[in-house]
Amino acid sequence: MARAMREDGQSESLFDDAEETAAEATAPLAVRMRPRTLDEVIGQRHLTGAGTPFRKLVDNDAPMSLLLWGPPGTGKTTLAYVVSQVTKRRFVELSAVSAGVKDVRAAVDGARRALGMHNAQTVLFVDEVHRFSKTQQDALLPAVENRWVSFIGATTENPFFSVVSPLLSRSLLLTLQPLSDDDVGEVIRRALAEPEPRGLGGAITIDDEAAGHLIRLAGGDARRALTYLEAAALGLPSGGLIDVATLERAVDRAAVRYDRDGDQHYDVISAFIKSMRGSDADAALHYLARMIAAGEDPRFIARRLIVHASEDVGMADPTALQTAVAAAQAVEFVGLPEARINLAQAVIHIALAPKSNAVIKAIGAAEADVRNGLIGTVPAHLRDAHYPGAGKVGHGEGYLYPHDFDDGVVPQRYAPDQVAERRYYEPSRHGLEARVAERAERIRAILGRAGSRTGNRSENRTGSQAERKAEGRTEDKSKKEQA
């Protein structure tokens, strides 16, 4: 907790010291356990490690303006507080939710007086700076430009969209990552072992199952983990044990039995995918909620949505892919818990959209022909004709430029001879793909490609492969994918 300070950086009185001591004793565990040095910070080693730009700024007590971008609970406020502690600077915190231009100017004026009268520098920390209007953000510019303050802004939203360009260009942008399960586990262990009044002083223990459930509930958010831990420890006698039942009562959340490396993971993701494929939005939402509650990586969920927007919907509703990609971007920009809304929107869209597996059948059939050796040479008139001497060997000769023709389509051979009559894409008559099917037939007629149908021949093979991929078995067994 920040000490009440005069403008010269000294404690105002003994009453302030007593007030601070009392405040520390009653502060939440997450506040008491806030790191006091960069070495105590858990996670974010890409920012705090030796030789990093941020570490150099702090170690050399250099003036700085920082924008910290990351999901909730990843340590944005912590880093700002540590900077003020390590560099012995005044710490002034504003929340963009409640502060206005008047508050910003008052904080800057106080910083200027402290700097001019006592050479005391100030860390001005603005939480949720993305909520400031353009006028409010502009009010910060003189202080940042003239280094009256060391400005540190925290945001959960993409600063390239939410922070004005002049402020962004004057600040070093640092991106914080969600804490790993190991990181959150270390936060919990440290809080349990740290002597009172800062930590729980070893008076309480937690069993492995409850610790795993707590880590899943935290979802990479250290503050949430410590808040739940404190709630579970409340009322337990010295030597008490936090088990799953105790944790469930404390947070009013039933433990979802879900091992991210075990059968539950594969069963739930399989049911999730098949519910969307079967157009049951309600069932799909149930499995989505179940995965989120169990701490499944939201990026994994988003990846599966992107895959199945093409695999199960495809050209029947091409906007399903756009929605899935947008949901994946929202996961990166916003993070949980808010991003669950974006994921739910994508799930509903994909589940209720008209279905077509023509896209995956088409690429599967084309791949099967390639594997079977049906490759052939590129027709001469399609070969690269830009380099000197290409015309001498007939490259590009006879090529018809489609834009020179009224319909933008002209009869000429595109595929190699071996597959000239093959038809891979067989559109369904579902949704928008019915219109695509009509256009595909007209174009094939112009091109003279009546063709032979190949999709049904490889359907079983590509379908079984797609099923395995859909259930996450190929992707999720990769350690890199789980990283």
Structure overview:
There is one protein chain. With 483 residues, the chain is of the alpha/beta class. Among the domains are: 34-175, 3-Layer(aba) Sandwich (Rossmann fold), CATH 3.40.50; 181-251, Orthogonal Bundle (Helicase, Ruva Protein, domain 3); 358-459, post-AAA+ oligomerization domain-like (Orthogonal Bundle). The chain is 50% helix and 8% strand. The chain has 24 helices and 9 strands. It has helices at residues 14-26, 29-32, 45-48, 53-59, 76-87, 101-118, 134-138, 141-145, 159-162, 165-169, 181-193, 208-218, 222-233, 244-251, 263-277, 281-293, 298-313, 319-333, 339-352, 358-371, 433-447, 459-470, 473-476, 479-482; strands spanning 65-69, 90-95, 122-127, 150-155, 172-175, 204-206, 240-242, 422-423, 452-453. The strands form 3 sheets. Strands 2-3-4-1-5 form a 5-stranded parallel beta sheet, sandwiched between helices. A two-stranded parallel ribbon has the order 6-7. Strand 2 (90-95), helix 6 (101-118) and strand 3 form a beta-alpha-beta unit. Helix 17 packs antiparallel against helix 18. It is globular, with a radius of gyration of 30 Å. Residues 1-16 and 455-483 have low confidence and may be disordered.
Q: Are there runs of 5+ residues with pLDDT below 50, and where?
A: 1-16, 455-483
The CATH architecture of the domain at 34-175 can be given as 3-Layer(aba) Sandwich
Proportion of strand residues: 5-15%
Instruction: Report the C-alpha radius of gyration, rounded.
Output: 30 Å
The CATH superfamily name of the domain at 34-175 is P-loop containing nucleotide triphosphate hydrolases
Largest sheet: 5 strands, parallel
Give the averaged pLDDT, no decimals: 80
Distance between the termini: 34 Å
Instruction: Report helical residue fraction.
Output: 40-55%
Q: Which CATH class of the domain at 34-175 applies here?
A: Alpha Beta
CATH topology of the domain at 34-175: Rossmann fold
Q: How many alpha or pi helices?
A: 24
